Amino acid sequence: MAVLEAATASWLRQLAERDSDAVLDRMHALAAERDFPIVGPEVGRLLAQLARLSSAQRIFEMGSGFGYSTLWFARALGEDGRIYHTDGDPENQRLARRFLGEAGVAQRVEFLCGDARELIAQTPGAFDIVFCDIDKAQYPSAYDLFADRVRVGGLVIIDNLIWSGRVAAGDDSAESRGIRDYVDKMWNDSRYLSSLMPVRDGVGVSLRVA
Ligand SMILES: C[S@@+](CC[C@H](N)C(=O)[O-])C[C@H]1O[C@@H](n2cnc3c(N)ncnc32)[C@H](O)[C@@H]1O
């Protein structure tokens, strides 16, 4: 189910791709070839904006794939920043090391392989941003682990809350239920001010206020 009509979706995509570059182009091509779900340039730009707006220096990413969303964040962080790339698939991590190396930002990235929920629990300290893009059925259990790990003034950003319209349409899959349960938890959490941006497939942005 398309959330936006085709011409508008295409225009927004063209706007977001305006200043693409060789590394991003190769990542777009690999995602298309493998039908791999990267966040895409519309969300990538939003991630970079939010990182800059919040002056983020330490970002924990859950479900980083071959490093596409990581690249947008890493560029926004600047040289002294740190981003944790996590994925359960070592092949994704191998590709991410290559792409992020080619982009000249690998020294800002710590690569951790395994279940991102376990990895965040094992990584001490507070984060300026937690970005979550793991399996959607796992969103509620991820919330339990990251909600207290963001500093006041920091952000939780989470992708695919619209899930191609299935969440609002009452779909009963494990993924749609996971997204619905996550939204219930996060929107009821008085430590956070949350909103859902209808960018691409829906990006949840929660600002920690207490
Ligand atoms: C939607 S893709 C991530 C795309 C990435 N954020 C991007 O835009 O380039 C989801 C990724 O999360 C990984 N994944 C799913 N559940 C995970 C978990 N519990 N822990 C670690 N990685 C997970 C998958 O292997 C997959 O690469």
| Gyration radius, in Å | 16 Å
Structural class: alpha/beta
Distance between the terminal alpha carbons, to the nearest Å? 37 Å
Number of separate strands: 7
Question: Sheet with the most strands?
Answer: 7 strands, mixed
Named at the architecture level, the CATH assignment is: 3-Layer(aba) Sandwich
Quick synopsis:
The chain has 210 residues and is α/β, with parallel strands linked by helices.
Written description of the protein model:
With 210 residues, the chain is an alpha/beta fold. It has a single domain (6-208), classed as Vaccinia Virus protein VP39 (Rossmann fold, 3-Layer(aba) Sandwich). 43% of the residues lie in helices and 21% in strands. The protein contains 8 helices and 7 strands, in the order αααβαβαβαβαβαββ. The protein has a 7-stranded mixed sheet, sandwiched between helices. Helix 6 runs parallel beside helix 7. It is globular, with a radius of gyration of 16 Å. The termini are far apart. The mean pLDDT is 96. Bound molecules: S-adenosylmethionine (SAM). S-adenosylmethionine (SAM) binds at residues 37-39, 63-65, 68-69, 86-89, 92, 115-117, 133-135, 138.
Q: Could you name the key traits of this structure?
A:
alpha/beta, Rossmann fold, 7-stranded mixed sheet, 7 strands, 43% helix, binds S-adenosylmethionine
Task: Please outline the helices and strands.
Layout: H1 6-16, H2 22-34, H3 40-53, E1 58-62, H4 68-77, E2 82-87, H5 90-102, E3 109-113, H6 116-122, E4 127-132, H7 139-146, E5 150-159, H8 174-187, E6 192-197, E7 203-208
Parallel strand pairs: 1-2, 1-4, 2-3, 4-5
Antiparallel strand pairs: 5-7, 6-7
Helix pairs in contact: 3-4, 6-7, 7-8
The structure holds S-adenosylmethionine.
